[in-house]
User: Fold Replication factor A C-terminal domain-containing protein from Vitis vinifera.
Amino acid sequence: MEDDKPWTLMCGLVAMDHTNFCYRVCSACERTLPDTATTNSTPSLCNVCNFNSSKPPSKRLFRVLVSIASDTKVFVVICFDRAARVLFGCSADEFFDFVKLHPFAAVTAGKVLEGEMFRMTLSKPKNGNAQHLRVVSVVPLRSGFQPAIETLRELYGVKRGGP
Ligand SMILES: [Zn+2]
Assistant:
């Protein structure tokens, strides 16, 4: 079992998959909802708890593929909500809403994170079918690091919390 322990490495972020960065879950039980493309707001009924997720709405969680480069190789890892929030600086719902207003924001977020150095803890997927290592935790190494949403707000001139 030693081999399956999470391990930590220094890496640079090479690229982020901005096309598919989140998924919808039932806001009551957090089970994944059938993904009628992450773009619409059609009410879905959670078939686990039968909670009608249209009210209160379902929520989104991050699930992002990122390419990282260690000192020896480049590989793709998957970042779930907790780790991705460090990179994005907001919830997946907030980011999704931002992208709705600024269609290129997801691409830009990838660009602003490119080249940043992180200390990441990775683990082997528990599900044998999952193909990517998952990111357990991520710590930015650059002292001036700011999460993508902060940079995006500056770029797009969005003030936080009004005038
Ligand atoms: Zn549910």
